[in-house]
Amino acid sequence: MVEHLMKFLQGMGFWSLTLGQVGMLCVASLLIYLAIRRGFEPLLLLPIGLGAFLANLPGTGLLNTPSGSEIGGLYYYLSKGIELEIFPPLIFLGIGAMTDFGPLLANPKTFLLGAAAQFGVFIALSSAVLLGFSLKEAAAIGIIGGRTARPRSI
């Protein structure tokens, strides 16, 4: 019985924890605590804390890259979503929807603010392309144009 218990404990991976991983697990736990119990920026701290916690668990294979018939870890596939630029627009769309629809529903006149910003982006981007800027430079100018086109108050 004791032999099976020792074999189980040795197979858990806690024996391979390094001091750095223990420190990062403490930091991750602190971030999760601050997000849930204290309410400090939960949209940022909770995913960061969970990611740091999962990445520092020993023996999970989370960081493995695929080789031969072995499949990769979760981090490999998530990094492909970032590398292929799939996740950042989805994240910004989700956070934008969560933050922008509340005021819009409370005061429907604020719809004009969003429309003015989109119109400003379109006009500034088009003007920059016509003036000879590259598309990337024109996009940066368009973002600035969208911000400056919003009316200050309604």
Low-confidence stretches: none
**What is the N-to-C order of secondary-structure elements (H for helix, E for strand)?**
HHHHHHH
Structural class: mainly alpha
General form = elongated
Number of DSSP E strands: 0
Mean pLDDT: 82
- Calculate the terminal CA-CA distance, rounded to whole Å: 74 Å
Treating each run of at least 4 consecutive H or I residues as one helix, how many helices?
7
User: Into which percentage range does the β-strand content fall?
Assistant: under 5%
Rg over CA atoms:
24 Å
Percent range of helical residues: 55-70%
The biggest sheet amounts to: none
Summarize the structure.
With 154 residues, this protein is an all-alpha fold.
Task: Describe the protein in words.
The chain has 154 residues and is an all-alpha fold. The chain has helices spanning 2-10, 19-36, 42-55, 74-83, 87-106, 111-130, 135-148. The longest helix is centred in the middle third of the chain and has 20 residues, at 87-106. It is elongated, with a radius of gyration of 24 Å. The model has no long low-confidence stretch (mean pLDDT 82).
Ordered list of secondary-structure elements with their pairings:
Blueprint: H1 2-10, H2 19-36, H3 42-55, H4 74-83, H5 87-106, H6 111-130, H7 135-148
List keywords for this structure.
154 residues, mainly alpha
